[in-house]
Design a protein that fits this description.
Blueprint lengths: L1 H11 L7 E3 H8 L3 H9 L12 E2 L16 H13 L4 E2 L2 E2 L4 E2 L3
Parallel strand pairs: 1-2, 1-5
Antiparallel strand pairs: 3-4
Helix pairs in contact: 2-3
C-alpha cells in the first residue's frame, strides 16, 4: 500500500509549473482507481513538496482539496488561488484545457 502512496507523490513532483493533471490520468498511469488517487492525496502531509493542488477532475473542475483534514469551501478557494499563482487560467469554474496534461 505504501508503494501506491509513494508512486502518486512521486508523480506530483513531475507536474511542471503552469500545468495540472487529472485524477484519472494519474490513476491510469499507476493502474489505480481515480478515487484511490483522491484518497491518497487527501492524506498528503507535505503539500509544499507534493503539490496535490495540481490534480483536478476530468471535466476540468477543481475537485476537492483537503488541508489539515478539512475539505470545505475555503479549501477549494485556496486551491484555486494556488493554481492562479501558478499562471493557470480558468473559464468560469473550469481550468482551460491547454493547461491540462493528458499523461505524465
Amino acid at each position: 500500500m505504501k508503494d501506491k502512496y509513494n508512486a502518486v507523490y512521486s508523480l506530483l513532483q513531475r507536474i511542471p509549473k503552469g500545468k495540472v493533471i487529472t485524477y484519472n490520468a494519474i490513476a491510469k498511469k499507476l493502474r489505480l482507481n481515480p478515487r484511490q488517487v483522491g484518497k491518497i492525496l487527501s492524506m498528503n502531509s507535505d503539500p509544499k513538496r507534493y503539490p496535490c493542488y495540481k490534480v483536478i477532475r476530468s471535466d476540468c473542475k477543481l475537485g476537492g482539496y483537503t488541508i489539515n483534514g478539512v475539505n470545505d469551501k475555503f479549501s477549494i478557494e485556496r486551491k484555486r488561488a494556488k493554481l492562479i499563482a501558478d499562471s493557470i487560467a480558468f473559464d468560469g469554474e473550469k481550468i482551460r484545457r491547454e493547461y491540462v496534461l493528458n499523461k505524465i
